[in-house]
Specification:
The protein is mostly helical. 69% of the residues lie in helices and 0% in strands. It has 26 helices and no strands. It has helices at residues 31-41, 44-60, 68-84, 88-101, 106-118, 122-135, 140-153, 156-169, 174-198, 202-215, 220-232, 236-249, 254-266, 270-283, 288-312, 316-329, 334-350, 354-367, 372-384, 388-401, 406-423, 427-431, 439-453, 463-483, 486-493, 513-520. Helix 4 packs antiparallel against helix 5, helix 11 runs parallel beside helix 13 and helix 23 packs antiparallel against helix 24. The longest helix has 25 residues, at 174-198.
């Protein structure tokens, strides 16, 4: 019908050629009129058939638009795809379009609730789940997700009421019963957590936190208990991070503001902590915890500042007293106390109290193992206390921290030389002379010491006394052997190893101390003291030493 064209009035001539069409009068030129004119030209019966045929053609044509439910299902499908790709906000928007198109499908609401839960928007998720249960009161998934959302919010009564409603509608549903058991466990754990924090049993509280943090993420009471537990076990960085997260959610909560101030204080940011406590006190002047913290920080800062001024003025004893007062304010503030211990160590060093300085510096290095300034100070103290091993250890660490520092490398070399000296016998001390003693002084000292500790002169003592005299006599001979030789003495003073001296033209290295004794006193062999019976055997010709 749509392509109907009027038959053209053409006839062929006798030669077989077409004649031009006869022009009809009254025919409109427009195409729309051409569609209507044939119908007018038909009689009544033919016109009726024309109308019926046109109607059938319209019914057979494809629809111009789908119904709302089908379109809504398509939107849900798109939302599911975005959900799988973890584009949760886009998924929520698509589920919302589906609901606007058709609001009688329960899965639209629960799917959007799942996306809300992924974004921690539990209030919106709970509302969607409630709407789904209104559409189908036996829809178990809606009860489960709704109860979980209420639990995250800390609204345990609404969670319980929703689960009871679901259990009534689905008395044999295992999943709903499991959610009821889980809810009871969460409520019990919150009660136990509250008691543990109240009783300051923070280690016990820490054991309860994992389950609570998994199922309850928006209950401000649980957030406060969590912060107090972290502060109680001295996990200050974790406390600061958690406090910031909770405070962003509940910026008007005074207690959260106070706890965030405490976390800032214990992580070394006292100025910002003071501002937090001031904000708390402006809103709630009677908040005692903030009052106490504010006063404590002020007292600590005053004592530390006073100690600094006294140190600069050369009043080192007064500075030590002020620093000690600052340390007594709060033993738990490790960051503040580390700085004060370092300052007090400097004052002790000025007073030449190196042992006390080492104790303070031990605290500093324990808290800050790579504090080069503290390590260098402690190395100096160790050197002054003749603890050369400790000095070398600290300087080696400083050298690793600052490999290009020549001064540290020079100090390390000196400390290693002193360490070697300390590990060996002090020959000067054994002979009773100073390091600047002359050759004649060394000889005189050897003569005196050797005569005093010769084993034959100590024959009447006990076995222990005889052994001690023998060892002493041996050390005296060894000391004289090294210090009487200029080359050996120089190497000894430089901290060099003396074990490789033998057999290289160094004379008496390793000589028997009795032989050295005889040679020193002019004899040629071992001999005893007069009246001793030549206990060690007389030398050639029965040579003996006579004293006095």
């Amino acid at each position: 019908i749509a392509h109907w064209r009027p038959r053209r009035n053409t006839k062929r001539t006798s030669e077989g050629k077409l004649k031009p069409p006869v022009k009809r009068t009254g025919m409109p030129a427009s195409s729309s009129s051409a569609m209507e004119t044939p119908k007018k030209a038909l009689n009544g019966e033919e016109a009726a058939k024309f109308d019926a045929h046109s109607k059938d053609e319209k019914l057979a044509s494809p629809p111009l638009s789908m119904d709302s439910k089908t379109l809504a299902e398509a939107k849900k499908k798109e939302g599911n795809a975005k959900f799988k790709e973890r584009y949760f906000r886009q998924a929520i928007a698509l589920y919302a379009e589906a609901i606007n198109l058709y609001n009688k499908e329960k899965s639209f609401y629960t799917n959007r609730a799942a996306a809300y839960m992924k974004l921690n928007l539990y209030a919106e998720a709970a509302a969607d789940c409630e709407a789904a249960t209104e559409i189908d009161n036996k829809f178990a998934k809606a009860y489960q997700r709704g109860a979980a959302s209420y639990t995250h919010l800390g609204d345990y009564e609404k969670a319980e009421a929703l689960l009871k409603k679901g259990n009534k509608a689905n008395p044999y549903d295992v999943n709903i019963r499991s959610e009821i058991t889980k809810l009871k466990s969460v409520v019990k754990r919150k009660r136990e957590l509250t008691d543990a924090v109240k009783e300051q049993k923070y280690e016990k509280a820490m054991l309860l936190l994992p389950a609570m943090e998994k199922f309850v993420t928006r209950d401000v009471d649980v957030g406060i208990l969590t912060l107090r537990a972290y502060l109680g076990v001295k996990r200050y960085q974790k406390a600061l991070k958690t406090a910031s997260e909770w405070y962003q959610r509940y910026p008007s909560n005074i207690e959260l503001l106070h706890l965030r101030g405490c976390a800032l204080y214990y992580t070394g940011n006292s100025p910002m902590a003071l501002k937090h406590f001031q904000m708390v006190l402006r809103s709630s002047p009677d908040f005692k915890e903030s009052q106490d913290m504010y006063r404590k920080i002020k007292k600590m800062d005053r004592a530390k500042a006073r100690g600094g001024e006294e140190f600069k003025s050369g009043k080192f004893e007064d500075a030590v007293q002020s620093y000690t007062e600052a340390l007594a304010c709060d033993p738990d503030n490790k960051i503040f106390n580390t700085a004060v211990h370092s300052n007090r160590a400097a004052a002790y060093m000025k007073m030449r109290k190196y042992a006390e300085a080492v104790e303070d510096l031990n605290f500093v290095v324990e808290e800050q193992p790579e504090n080069k300034k503290a390590l260098l100070r402690r190395a100096t103290c160790h050197t002054e206390l003749s603890n050369h091993d400790g000095a070398v250890r600290d300087l080696e660490m400083c050298s690793k921290l600052d490999r290009g520092n020549r001064e540290i490398r020079q100090r390390l070399r000196k400390a290693m030389i002193a360490q070697k000296r300390a590990a060996r016998k002090d020959y000067y001390k054994i002979l009773g002379v100073t390091q600047s003693a002359t050759g004649s002084e060394i000889k005189k000292a050897y003569r005196k010491a050797a005569l005093k500790w010769h084993p034959d002169k100590n024959q009447n003592g006990t076995e222990e006394e005889k052994a001690a005299a023998e060892a002493k006599f041996k050390d005296i001979g060894e000391a004289y052997e090294v210090l009487s030789d200029d080359q050996k003495r120089q190497r000894y003073d430089n901290g060099e190893d003396l074990d490789d001296m033998g057999g290289h033209g160094h004379g008496m290295h390793g000589m028997d101390p009795h032989m050295m004794f005889n040679m020193f006193f002019g004899g040629r062999g071992g001999g005893g003291f007069p009246g001793g019976g030549g206990g060690r055997g007389g030398g050639p010709g029965g040579f003996e030493f006579h004293f006095g």
